[in-house]
Design a protein that fits this description.
NAD(P)-bd_dom_sf; seven-stranded parallel β-sheet; EC 5.1.3.2; globular; Epimerase_deHydtase; UDP-glucose 4-epimerase; Rossmann fold; UDP-glucose 4-epimerase activity; alpha/beta; three-stranded mixed β-sheet; 327 residues
């Protein structure tokens, strides 16, 4: 057998099919691209059918039977779909629970019928802990969310771990810090690092609630999807008797002011900033302890804030040039 044929067989053996919910979101799109780059097939669970060979109509509110059908022939599930952000969850709590928590429960019930199929759930390292008692925040920290978004994420986690213990569902949870990078919605309500970079590059002033001293753990999108890829591949026995709940972050804190200073330094010019009254739900510091992910997944963040911001600003600059050329 030639070395070329041997390599082709190895690639074929490693090729898998994954179902991704929330595939049209910021992390979802990047994850789909990464999985396909690794040679896998990706089935996207979508709310409405759109042209695409690997799309399946299966919104969060789908029936258990619909979920069960969507899982046919897949080797693992990435559950990223979530219909709210903190602000909308507080405004529409019943919709948040009905769509997200009950929807996740439907997926778990379908997974109960397919034992051994791993599912990685995207939880929130920024909201489930509430106001940290100590930093960095480990996975053992009490869960005391300050808002309904965090409460719903905690509820989904509790159900996932219950289904793991009681029904053998191979659920795994990643508590993601603050992701940023190309592809994030810069007109949205989440992603200070991305929003700040875009507004600074386009000459708009940046709005900061509070005095800019709030510290968060910012994680570049490439590192985020690497963590998901590592989490689905790890052997179930790697977790032993402990629950597979892992913080995913850089492990380093950065204030809002430091983000602005970094962008200003990269662009080589000052940036206009408008400060507004602080918000009750913004805890002063949230930095994740990430050694468990390194130990169990062999994963660690590799992109520092300055490098990540430089990559993002370069991407945005090229995007602006393309927009000008199109007009």
């Amino acid at each position: 057998m030639s070395s070329g044929s041997h390599s082709a067989i190895l690639i074929e053996l490693k090729k898998k099919t994954y179902l991704v919910t929330g595939a049209s979101g910021f992390i979802g799109r990047a994850l789909v691209d990464r999985l396909r780059l690794e040679g896998h097939d990706v089935r996207r669970a979508v709310r409405r059918m759109v042209p695409g060979a690997f799309n399946v109509q299966c919104p969060l509110g789908a029936s258990v039977d619909a979920w069960h059908d969507a899982l046919e022939g897949v080797d693992g599930v990435f559950h990223l779909a979530w219909s709210t952000v903190p602000k909308t969850a507080d405004r529409l709590p019943l919709d948040d629970v009905t769509t997200n928590v009950v929807g996740t429960l439907g997926l778990l019930e379908a997974l109960r019928r397919r034992p051994g199929l791993p599912m990685v759930f995207a939880s929130s390292g920024g909201t489930v802990y509430g106001a940290p008692e100590t930093t960095p925040v480990s996975e053992a920290h009490p869960l005391r969310p300050l808002g309904l978004y965090g409460a719903s994420k905690v509820s989904a986690e509790v159900y996932a771990m219950l289904y793991r213990r009681q029904f053998g569902v191979d659920a795994r949870i990643l508590r993601i810090s603050n992701p940023y990078g190309p592809g994030q919605n810069v007109e949205g309500q989440l992603g200070a690092a991305s929003i700040f970079a875009w507004r600074a590059l386009t000459g708009h002033e940046i709005r900061i609630w509070g005095d800019g001293s709030i510290v968060r753990d910012y994680l570049y999108i490439d590192d985020v999807v690497s963590a998901f890829s590592a989490a689905i591949k790890v052997d179930p026995d790697a977790f032993g008797s402990s629950e597979p709940i892992l913080n995913i972050g850089s492990g380093h804190g950065t204030s809002l002011k430091q983000i602005v200073e970094t962008i200003s330094d990269i662009l080589g010019r000052p940036i206009r900033v408008e400060y507004e009254s602080s918000r009750y739900f913004d805890v002063p510091v949230n930095v994740l302890e990430v050694s468990r992910a390194e130990q169990l997944l062999g994963w660690t963040a590799t992109t520092g804030l300055r490098d990540g911001m430089s990559k993002m600003l370069d991407h945005f600059s090229k995007q602006l040039v393309s927009q000008v050329q199109l007009t």
